[in-house]
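Posted in: Protein Modeling Q&A

I'm a second-year student putting together a small comparison for a lab meeting, and my supervisor asked me to include a predicted structure for Type I restriction modification DNA specificity domain-containing protein. I've never done this before, so apologies if this is the wrong subforum. The sequence is pasted below exactly as I got it from our records. If anyone can share the structure token output, I'd also love a short note on what stands out.
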Amino acid sequence: MNYELKDIQWGEYRIGDLFESENGDFDIQKSHINNNGYFVITSGLMNNGILGKSDVLSKIFREQTITVDMFGNVFYRSFKYKLVTHARVFSLIPKFIITENVGLFFANSLDYFKNLFDYNHMCSWKKIKNLNIQLLIKNNQIDFDFMEKYISLIKQESLNKLKEYLNKQTNNNYELSILEQDAKINLMILLGKNIGLVICLKYILQAVLTKIH
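Accepted answer (user: helix_wrangler)
Welcome! Here is the predicted structure, written out as tokens:
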């Protein structure tokens, strides 16, 4: 990956020019969580902000969007979901075509929000829409292709290290085809939080080794 990073260029973009913001339309409570319907997103890091599932009648947000909570925690969402209204969490709807890898790159780039906001100074769309984000550019345009390839490389590197670790621990030649989906899901979540590779592997292994045993 390093050789590809040498010649990259960066540009600065206003967040409000890249995204629109939407909020939930019903105050979903814990009593509405019934393991049916769609995932419900709230504020906080526990379970990556996922409160549970509910089929209560409320607005459904599309997949391939990003959620931001009142503390500035940012997550890319690859699935459809609902939002609570009491916890001040909102959705960023991209004005461009977004893929899983591009979404992860953006979530990582917006991770600095958590350093700006807290309970006494809560994050909101009004407060972030005029902030800037640095993005990779090529020919003065956002380089989505590079983002796609870069995140793919990180995923593959992590999966290779995971396979190497499993083989050392078990003395077996494990193929990751069966485990890859679970590993990727956990990796996607952690990449969005800018956690280092070693820590990524720690959490991925927890999920994968549980499957093995």
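A couple of things worth pointing out for your meeting: The chain is about 35% helix and 20% strand. The domain at 10-142 is CATH 3.90.220.20 (Adenine-n6-DNA-methyltransferase TaqI; Chain A, domain 2).
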